[in-house]
Amino acid sequence: MDRFTALKVFCAVIEARSFTKAATNVGLSRSAISKNIRELEAHVGVRLVNRTTRGVTASEAGAHYYKAVSDLLRRHEAADDLATQSAQELRGTLRLTIPVTLGLHLVVPLLPKFSQENPEVSLDICMSEEKLELLEGNFDVAVRGSHRLEDSTLISRRIGSVPYVTCAAPQYLQQASKITQPGDLLHHPLIVHGANLGDEQWCFSKQETPCHVSVRARHKSNCSEALRSLLVAGMGVARIPLPYVRQDIEQGRLQPLLEDWSLEPLSVYAVYPQSDFVPRRTRLFIDFLISSFKGT
To answer: What does the pLDDT average to over 169-173?
Structure first.
């Protein structure tokens, strides 16, 4: 048994949850995948994967083993990066996980420039409103927007911030009571992002005087694009990042409210696994994002 190959195969099986998909991902036959798993389980003396009609999952021991092995493989890859970091070009695949709306409006438009500057880096982008596990998904970087991040063993760097706007559709405002101060929002149906920590209060300020509105959501979604659609349909009032609705405001589909009040902005973070060796392409990509956000 080639121990290193067996470890890579094991991680590929856990990540793909399928022997067949893992075989495609690593370029081996399905029988070779099965042989490597059998020999690895014999070597460690414990069952690492559970095989069912629904697919393949890690056993309890396999889940612990996967965390250790995936970190070991990351260290190996990072060591390769260290050995070649004097080269002018970066190489390899950068796996990213990004929320859909944040990604489409704020991150994806920046990627052509990064790719042009680093043509040997391949991008593998997973767009999801779910906060995916970085180690289980073998992701290098997650980009997340939040007022505060959960306690985590992950490392986070603040990329920048995005302004919010409070707004509603003209057809809604025509039949609703006026909104002249933040407290008036309590008398309106509020459309709220239900996934972010910090969304239980909307924090306004005016001439350094704060005003906190406790949010009672009428409608809720974990996807900002869904919130935008509900807003445009006239279903209530929302606080939403300005870049997501700038075109709607410019074209009259939405109308900004409380413009003499400022809102606490949304902070955007790059999050990556804690490790002694962070791949060079990961570090430079995060630096690129920070530099790019400063210019927005």
So the answer is: 95
Are the C-beta atoms of residues 203 and 210 closer than 8 Å to each other?
yes
**Percent share of the chain, pLDDT over 90:** 36
Q: Could you give the CA distance from residue 273 to residue 54 in angstroms, rounded to a whole number?
A: 29
Q: What is the CA radius of gyration of the chain?
A: 23
Give the C-alpha distances (Å, rounded to integers) separating 239 from 98, 127, 180, 194, 224: 21, 22, 15, 12, 10
Residue recorded with tokens 């509900």:
230
Other C-beta atoms within 10 Å of 14: how many?
Answer: 23
69-128 pLDDT per residue, tens: 888 888 777 776 666 654 544 778 899 999 999 999 999 999 999 999 988 889 999 998
9: closest CA among 65, 52, 61? 65
Tell me the residue ranges of DSSP E strands in the chain. Answer: 49-52, 55-58, 92-98, 121-127, 141-146, 155-162, 164-168, 190-193, 201-206, 209-214, 217-221, 237-241, 255-257, 262-263, 266-272
Q: Report the C-alpha gap between 287 and 57 in whole angstroms.
A: 36
At a CB cut-off of 8 Å and minimum separation 6, what does 268 contact? 102, 106, 143, 144, 145, 158, 159, 160, 161, 162, 293
What is the strand order of the sheet 255-257 is part of?
Answer: 217-221, 190-193, 237-241, 164-168, 255-257
Structure confidence at residue 276 (pLDDT): 65
Whether pTM exceeds 0.70: no
Contact 162, 266 (CB under 8 A): yes
Q: Contact at 8 Å (CB) between 213 and 187?
A: no
For residues 196 and 159, what is the distance between their CA atoms, to the nearest angstrom? 17
Query: 152: Cβ–Cβ under 8 A, 6 or more apart, which residues?
Result: 271
